[in-house]
Write a structure and sequence with these properties.
- The complex is a heterodimer of chains A (327) and B (130).
- Chain A is an alpha/beta fold and 327 residues long.
- In chain A, 31% of the residues lie in helices and 28% in strands.
- Chain A is built from ten helices and 15 strands.
- In chain A, a hairpin with a 2-residue loop joins strand 10 and strand 11.
- By secondary structure, chain B is mainly alpha-helical.
- A two-stranded antiparallel ribbon of chain B has the order 1-2.
- In chain B, helix 1 crosses helix 3, helix 1 crosses helix 4 and helix 2 crosses helix 3.
- The two termini of chain B are 21 Å apart.
- Classes of the chains: A alpha/beta (327), B mainly alpha (130).
- Chains A and B meet through helix 6 and strand 15 of A and helix 2, helix 3 and helix 4 of B.
């Protein structure tokens, strides 16, 4: 198949609004959150809403500001501006309370205390977190094949990640924040971890905010999607809305047919001989009607996988003074 | 009971779960009073959001296909058998086939003729009893 290059942000293109209604009580809500490092802007006004009991996927390229955002929510770093609420609390004022209520798997694989054994670490956490579930911690350790006598300093990257996951889940938190939770894990462990997260959700109904590059892993679990791009939340909507509104249309038409001139929300266009493929943001009925009205026959309309949908958003042409199409 | 989910399918995941349960009923893999896997088990096994599984079970319950026994789980309901389920499945299979035919530029008549032909050609290969 011959794929046309991505549309550039040419003058006629107006980026659609990729925001949908996020309903329910928010577990996390930020208002105009900004973060600057010197002259670099990491976050440029983020209004994020993650509903309680949901699984919110935070997607974005490397350096898009995902980890900064998570660290602000835990008050591990201070924002430059804006406000945040986590479980109804203000991170700036109630940082320690929030950190006690949130199961956090950080981007880093370092666990500190190199001399300490896994078992000692668990004992330490058990005394620190009131809802610590030791039986569950033991069960997780068995399923993730982590021996309690192992010294933290001798853990491989993947083993350290498993210990961090056990530590985050066994405290039975109301909110899980997972920053690349399966980074460094082998395929079997990655699969196991997603099963554990699903079971944990069924057991506790907790809220999850997960940042990951491996979108297909959370495809069946995530119910809300946020896409960070260049420090802005380009998209935020329920997953169902994303997969309903962003679809791939394949159509054929008479000789020389180039499709409707007035098709809006086109994210990508490609062709195979005389068959034209459009990835379009819009309601299916409207898009299909436009194609049909222009003399084409819609052969197929299909939703994108979550991975493809997010990549499409991350590459969408942006309107604005400078051309920032893809990177 | 094994439930297969396909994330590239146009049907939402909860609908796929419902369709898989109906399929199991039509095939006789699931019968009256059989338990469905728990929400936790199915969500864990298939790496699904438990809310999605719960939604499918709720819809099936609303349709009278299954019922919930407090504290014990979800079971297949006793009801005038699967004529309606079978009907639903036939229509869905037909709709999928038609869509696929259209994708390939074929008409419904082309498809029907081809299905007859293929069915006749395989008449002597063993088929599942209807």
């Amino acid at each position: 198949m011959i794929t046309a290059p991505l549309l550039r942000a040419d003058r006629g293109f107006h980026a659609p609004d990729f925001h949908g209604e996020v309903s329910g009580v928010p577990a996390i809500a930020t208002d105009g959150l900004t973060k600057r490092y010197g002259r670099e802007t990491a976050l440029a006004g983020i209004d994020l809403t993650a509903p309680e009991g949901g699984v919110y996927l935070l997607a974005g390229a490397n350096g898009a500001g995902k980890s900064s955002l998570l660290r602000i929510l835990l008050n591990l770093i201070a924002p430059t501006g804006g406000t945040a609420r986590v479980l109804g609390l203000d991170p700036r004022r109630d940082g320690p309370t929030i950190r006690a209520e949130v199961g956090y798997v950080p981007e880093t694989h370092q666990i500190g205390y190199r001399w300490m054994s896994v078992g000692r670490l668990m004992d330490h956490l058990a005394s620190y977190y009131p809802r610590w579930d030791q039986a569950y911690a033991d069960q997780l350790a068995r399923r993730l094949e982590i021996r309690p006598d192992k010294k933290l300093g001798t853990l491989s990257k993947g083993q350290a990640r498993r210990v961090q996951l056990i530590a985050a889940l066994a405290r039975r938190p109301r909110l899980l924040m997972l920053d690349e939770p399966t980074d460094g894990l082998d395929p079997v462990a990655r699969d196991e971890v997603m099963g554990l997260v699903a079971e944990h959700l069924a057991d506790t109904g907790c809220t999850v905010l997960v940042s990951t590059h491996l979108i297909y892993e959370v495809e069946r679990i995530a119910d809300h999607i946020g896409v960070l791009r260049e420090g802005r939340l380009l998209a935020q909507l329920p997953r169902e809305d994303l997969q309903r509104k962003l679809r791939l249309y394949r159509a054929t038409g008479p000789e020389g047919w180039v499709g409707p001139a007035d098709l809006t929300g086109v994210m990508k266009r490609a062709s195979l001989g005389r068959e034209i493929h459009w990835t379009v943001w819009g309601e299916e009925r409207d898009v299909a009607a436009r194609i049909t009205d222009s003399g084409g026959v819609v052969r197929d309309v299909a939703p994108l996988t979550l991975d493809d949908a997010v990549v499409t958003l991350m590459r969408a042409p942006l309107t604005g003074p400078k051309d920032t199409a893809d990177q | 009971m094994h439930i297969a989910i396909n994330t590239t399918d146009a049907r939402p995941i909860y609908v796929q779960i419902m369709d898989e349960v109906r399929r199991a009923l039509v095939l006789g893999a699931l019968r009256t009073e059989d338990p469905l896997p728990s929400v936790r088990q199915l969500a864990g096994d298939l790496r699904l959001n438990p809310n999605t599984v719960a939604q499918a079970y709720r819809e099936l319950e609303r349709e009278g296909v299954v019922y919930v026994r407090r504290g014990q789980g979800t079971f297949v309901a006793d009801r005038p058998a699967s004529a309606r389920d079978r009907d639903l499945i036939v229509r869905e299979v037909a709709a999928r086939a038609l869509l696929d035919a259209h994708r390939h530029g074929l008409s419904a008549d082309d498809l029907i003729a081809a299905v007859r032909q293929a069915s006749d050609a395989s008449a002597d290969t063993p088929r599942a009893a209807e």
